[in-house]
Design goal:
It is a single chain. This protein has 244 residues and is of the alpha/beta class. Helices cover 45% and strands 15% of the residues. It has a 7-stranded mixed beta sheet, sandwiched between helices. Strand 4, helix 6 (147-158) and strand 5 (163-166) form a beta-alpha-beta unit. It is globular, with a radius of gyration of 17 Å.
Length: 244
């Protein structure tokens, strides 16, 4: 059976459930990670947010190509194949008149603009055409309200498949109330226990996204500790399913 994990950005699946992906591959399952916002920027200039992030990531204007290579290394570490969609990250997307649609961090933590409704529809059609009928599909809950996470979830849900959901890490650490609401609304939580070897593979998969470590942590040691703490919460990974 195929398992396909839908990742808004190059690192989201590795961060949120890298140990489970690795274990499934070890068990002989065919696992793939599809990154939605894997496209190149349009235009030669960048928004202030993109410029700031490029500097923090130490990637310069080659951020997308560097992150794409990191993702391929991370997927190889997990034993998963990779597919990159052509949609640019929100920090690069522009409107019809060339203006940046999400020019600030405040704009990024929000719902997709109405002008991007066509993008959600386009993406949903691409997914509907590409997803194998019998594959298990795992989608982000969009905890943290990042616009790309919300866009991804909206597009996947439009396909009309029965889905698994993963909690977006590390945003989930600040969203315990929203997870409690899922339980009260009848959502089903399913724990996937994992061995200690999966924890190590998980940490290595995240470490492969070297440019992104500074987004959340001071160094690799701090990242490894954070992944370990999250792993120990469920002794593995917890996925969610909507009530039927």
């Amino acid at each position: 059976m195929d398992w396909i994990y839908i990742s808004p950005h190059f690192d989201d699946v590795a961060l949120s459930c890298g140990g489970l992906v690795w274990q499934q591959a070890q068990d002989g399952l065919k696992v793939s990670i599809w990154t939605i916002c894997g496209g190149e920027p349009t235009g030669e200039d960048f928004s202030p947010v993109a410029e700031f992030l490029h500097q923090r990531w130490k990637t310069g204007a080659q951020a997308v190509s560097i992150r794409r290579a990191e993702d391929l290394a991370s997927c190889a570490q997990m034993g998963a194949s990779a597919r990159h969609f052509p949609i640019p990250d929100c920090i690069y997307r522009r409107g019809a008149e060339g203006q940046f649609l999400y020019p600030s961090f405040e704009a990024i933590r929000n719902a997709p603009l109405a002008s991007e409704a066509h993008l959600i529809q386009q993406l949903s059609q691409m997914l509907a055409q590409g997803l194998p009928p019998e594959a298990e599909v795992v989608c982000p809950l969009a905890l943290g309200d990042h616009v790309d996470h919300r866009l991804t979830r909206a597009a996947v849900e439009q396909v009309g498949r029965c889905l698994w959901y993963y909690a977006d890490f590390p945003y989930v650490l600040e969203e315990t109330e929203r997870l409690e609401q899922l339980t009260s609304q009848g959502w089903k939580a399913v724990d996937f226990p994992l061995p200690e070897t999966a924890l190590s593979a998980w940490q290595k998969a995240v470490a492969a996204h070297a440019s992104q470590i500074s987004t959340f942590w001071d160094d690799l040691t701090e990242m490894e500790a954070a992944i370990k703490d999250y792993f120990e919460r469920y002794r593995g990974v917890r996925l969610w399913q909507k009530p039927t």
